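Example record

The entry below shows one chain as it appears in the dataset: sequence first, then structure tokens.
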Amino acid sequence: MPDSTLAKGFIGTAKKLVPTGAVRPTQANLRRAVSSCYYAVFHALAKVAADSMVGAVKSKRSNKAWVEVYRGLGHGNCYQGCKEASKKSFPQELQDFADAFVQLQNARHRADYDPTFRLQKKDVQIYLNLAEQSIITLNQASILDKRAFTTWVLISSPGAKKARELAGKSS
């Protein structure tokens, strides 16, 4: 059975790595917390995509198809789709989610790959709040808007891009 609670789990992991109070976390913990914030948002998007395209009720959907959509999201395609979402007519909450996704992926890349990148506890708290708020915002969007947005980030083949281009000319 697929685990649909990964986003919540990654938020919990980030919080454990950066506890409140006087404890001073290591750079390794701060970096892993930033990564966890990004992965929370990524898995929230994957769940919304699978739920909105295949179905949220386990007994009324194909779990195989649900997992296929969930895993169909690619980090690079999601990043590009979110980066370009501002050019589309998505509702503000999805524009905000897309912006947060881009910010968190950029932060994760720096945290994971830039040895000179230094984080402070307050930086990670900002990323953690951004991740939590963007997940709430994503989940509050209407099912039709979720479906349109997740289709946008999921389907990025040359044929889909051409169809979008043609649809834009006819409207």
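Notes for this example: The chain has eight helices and no strands. The chain has one domain: 6-170.
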